[in-house]
Amino acid sequence: MAESPGPGVAHHPGGSPALAHLITELQGHGLRVQVPLESRQGGAGPADAGMLWIDGFAATVPTNAEYVQASPYVLRAEDDGWGVYRDGERLASAEPFHRPRFYDLATAAGVPYWQIALLHLDSLASTVIQTCAYWGNADQCAFCGIGVTLANGRTIARKTPQMLAEVAVAAKELDGAVDATLTTGTTATPDKGALYVARCGQAVREAAGLPVEVQFEPPRDLAVIDQVRDMGISSVGIHVESFDPQVLARIAPAKARTGIDGYFRAWERAVAAFGEGQVSTYVILGMGEDPDLTVAGCRRAIDIGVYPFVVPLRPTVGSLMEHLAAPSPEYCETVYRRVVPYLTARGLGARGVAAGCARCQACSAMSLLEPTADNDGRIHLPILSNR
Fold first, then answer.
1. Residue closest to 125 by CA, chosen among 176, 173, 164
2. Are the CB atoms for 182 and 212 separated by under 8 Å?
């Protein structure tokens, strides 16, 4: 059974600066493990994701990459639980994520549930079309490993709405899934795959009652975004990846042709449809971007009600960036600390997101720097850094 942190344990914002620093360090250096740990490899988003709770906060950290063997951090079993250690010093408690029970089930046609969707801590996640019009050609996104998972047999090429609905019910009932995050490889159609992933999300919501985020590229006709809303989808992710146009052209040529302004037009339509804070975008650090352009782009997105989910690059084996080093934790933390105050001033935060990556937050330490409230209602803001 997948073990949750238990009642009353924080999952979202509200961690201490020290915990935010530790998780940023772990996501940069990785975590050596001495106990079995469920992980995600390949795929369309942050891969090499060992999943666990650290002092009650959900986190994914690299555990399998070669550079992790040099990490000073190690997960150790203790007499009563687990702990994160550095140089023999215990830094935090930990709870590894164990194999979900629904992974042992299969469809009537014999397809294992784990090939249809995975549980990322408490969020059911699936790439509904595991192929992409850009994979294997000049338009391939350099950070992406969507074809890797398919090639190694860890998934199937196309999940149907019926399959996903069946798995979602089991994930909720057996393992406590609280939402679903569905993404897709881009299709060579005007809607870029948005309508199919939305149909899958609609089936999940109707069968399991889970809030659903779907992720897709800006469709050619922005009215498609309204059609997605009308299917009962809670949140959308439309991912620009980088606000530095030179980096975007190098690492995601097709997205660069849409252009950063094209993403802003899609976001404006999406915010009008789904509401402020229910539209998010991935912003990946460590691809050679200008941090000032990154922060300025995040601020512009926040101003129109978009949540920029800032994450460190995790070089995926089999991707065009597999030999890159992950960005330094110091760099990532500096960017987090520059972006979070804009979210705070705008009244946006992870707590208000209905579903998806910006709700889960496990792949970034950013939400741990969001403000918290005391029992008497006083708000505490994150400490700024000029590093």
1. 164
2. yes
Q: Is 17 exposed, middle or buried (0-12, 13-18, 19+ CB in 10 A)?
A: middle
Q: Contact, 236 vs 307, CB < 8 A?
A: no
The two three-digit tokens of residue 8, written as one number:
């009353």
The torsion angles phi and psi of 247, rounded to 5 degrees, stand at -65, -45
Of 314, 315, 301, the C-alpha closest to 270 is: 301
Query: How many angstroms separate the CA atoms of 351 and 346, rounded?
Result: 14
Q: Are 383 and 377 in contact (CB under 8 A)?
A: no
Instruction: Quote the CA–CA distance of 144 and 385 in Å, as a whole number.
Output: 31
Model pTM above 0.85? yes
The mean pLDDT value for 252-280 works out to 98
What is the rounded CA–CA span in Å between residue 220 and residue 265? 11
- Name the strand (E) or helix (H) holding 73: strand 73-78
pLDDT tens string 213-255: 999 999 999 999 999 999 999 999 999 999 999 999 999 999 9
Residues 183, 155: Cα–Cα separation, whole Å: 14
